[in-house]
Amino acid sequence: AQSVTQLGSHVSVSEGALVLLRCNYSSSVPPYLFWYVQYPNQGLQLLLKYTSAATLVKGINGFEAEFKKSETSFHLTKPSAHMSDAAEYFCAVTFTGGGNKLTFGTGTQLKVEL
Amino acid sequence: DADVTQTPRNRITKTGKRIMLECSQTKGHDRMYWYRQDPGLGLRLIYYSFDVKDINKGEISDGYSVSRQAQAKFSLSLESAIPNQTALYFCATSDPRQGPDTQYFGPGTRLTVL
Question: Rounded CA gap, B106 and B93, in Å?
């Protein structure tokens, strides 16, 4: 069975500081990994996805994530946080033949402070 | 106009009532999904449909039913609502030809069962 674990349900950073949101996955077959963002009162929007091509994936709004098989991780980073990055972030996993049934993590609420 | 729409956006109902949540999409995708979101639990899959004649249960289908009226429409029903079905409900679509495909989410329906 596949699963993802997001460490830290709440993360707070200062504006301009590095953003690091952690995601570890468990999958018995090669996974496909996603990061979604949810702004207040909105649906989820894709930030980026790993599909077994490049291990460093760049997404929208300056975010990127690196797939590390040895660490079973897919952490999300952004060099410099902006107030507009405040949102909830979800990591999700599926795999080939999984029928695109995504398994979501429990989410990390990012707060950006002045 | 939004590609994935959900109606209603907010609904308050009483225990025992039958409720239908509707989802429409203009993306031309064959696959549609219903999720519920609860604080601290992330998103959990209720039902999914890969085409009009293919409907499948997700991990938490008890107490719910669905109807795929057309490629563009996928409805979720609560036959007899109970308070622990109070949650944020999301519809999503995907296109396997974009595989590993991305899911596109509607804005959500906030349901409160009193």
Answer: 9
Alpha-carbon span A5 to A75, nearest angstrom: 11
| Dist CA A78 CA A61 (whole Å) | 9
Candidates A36, A101, A107; nearest CB to B48 = A101
Q: Does B103 touch chain A (CB under 8 A)?
A: yes
From chain A, the residues in CB contact with B58 under 8 A are 101
What string of pLDDT tens digits covers the 114 residues of chain A?
788 999 999 999 999 999 999 999 988 888 899 999 999 888 999 999 998 778 899 999 999 999 999 999 999 999 999 999 999 999 999 877 766 688 999 999 999 999
Q: Inform me whether the C-beta atom of residue B40 falls under 8 Å from chain A C-beta atoms.
A: yes
Q: Which of B12, B94, B3, B113 is nearest to B48 (CA)?
A: B94
Nearest CA-CA distance, residue B16 and chain A, Å: 27
Quote the CA–CA distance of A103 and B102 in Å, as a whole number: 13
